[in-house]
Design brief:
With 538 residues, the chain is mainly beta. Helix content is 11%, strand content 36%.
Length: 538
Amino acid sequence: MNSRLFGAGAVLSVLAVLGSLPAPASSAPRPGAHRGLPLGAPDLSETRTTRTLQPGVTLTRIVRGADASPLPWTVEVSIPGGAGSPDPDAPPTALKDRASADELAADLRADGFDARAEDVVTPAVADHAGGSLGWRVRVGRFDSEAAATAERTRLRTAGYTGAAAYTGWDGNPTDRGPWRIDVLTVDPHRFRGALRASYGPDLENRETTSELAAAAGATAAVNAGFFVLDPRAGAPGDPAGVGVYDGRLLSETVNGRPGLVVRDSARGTRVERFTWRGRIVGGGEVLPLDGIDRVPGLIRNCGGTADDTPTSASLHDTTCTDPDELVAFTPEFGHRTPEGDGLEAVLDRHGRVTEVRSPRGGALPDGGSSVQATGRNVAALAAVAKTGRKLAFQGGLRDTAGRPVPTPRGTSIVNGGPELVRDGRLHVTPAADGMVQPGNPSFFYGWAHKRNPRTLAGVDAAGRTVLVTADGRSTGALGLSIPESAAVAKALGLRDAINLDGGGSTTMVADGEVLGDPSDATGERPVGDALLILPDRT
């Protein structure tokens, strides 16, 4: 953990221990100033240390339950479909029905392991009733990760599969921590820099949050939206949802999912749900677009058109497919467009067709763009893409009522989900945003119910933009479940809040230093985009 930014030599305000936090002098409450965070028991110790990074920007480190005793490790065993399972041939997962879990636990005990079956109960949220997610099977309780790993090895030797797990990551509300959370607050009334999203030199490649911050000379930054990680799911680095940068729509929406809207001035920050419409116009014809700046046929997080497989609804961390697509590429995508079967119309900076190539893919002219077609859309594009003809892209974002959403220069929108807070009230929407997946409770269990590193963002009642990271996946920082993330956002005073990409992506940078401990074993993860706080350069 980097602590130089909070060292004794810094200009700091220590807000003290839970129960003695002073109320602010201003009429609008400072985030979290009235009480401790709603994590663990009410009597936990909590310290808050605040530093001003530049006029209008503060950084607060919150540590809760620092003196907590360690919790036990265990081994979570993958459950095959048992004789009593609705689907005995289903692949092993973390959660199954009780009959399958009991059957596995009995087999483990017969083989000499200290096994137990546990019902996993999750709290209700705005669009998910909660209750039992299913049953898990665990073996033993151990004082160290090494002891749990040794038991996992013994299990594998006996023919079982599983993983060592720290029970502090389960989300038990009586746990005593520790939690380590960093909060950036941008006050638009005093801020004279710029607040904007950056994807780096091009959309199709990934950079770390610290690299994006350094390249822009940012005072501070956090990672932002979900993005393509696996080349089999598209172009790594491509936003997996809406992406607007300096007013330009460079990535289409996962239809109906929320995004965080910020402006360079840090005024008017909001969370809003979006759809989009796009088309190519030329030669008297209008061709509807499926996407912008992504590999045709691969729709990460789904939420595309009605002919997508397996669904046109949002389905998080799933790649839907469509063999018949029309996708536009902007100059910002990268030096080369994706290669594959189909047709591509290459346009110069004025939108005139300079080349029609098949198969598709290759270099673009300086400032140029292109349109790629696959499957049944090839003939339609071939009919309008004549050399010298001008093709125009038309369209943009819409709200969920279908009304156009303007995105003037200086506007950034990054994708996220689920919502966490709306109008000052808890409003958690995992079902609407594709994290509740029928037939796969293990996904919700691992992604939303269990504690993970998280990145959150929103706006408080005073119009201040608040960016939050919570370290996790360690014994020194438990992380947050999605319901806990919402509770933290509300306790910090956010009027509207959204979950951004988390896990190994969660990173905050301030004054050139990475705060906390990114959870990937390889260190800080390269990401698709980041939110940057830039200094006043006037």
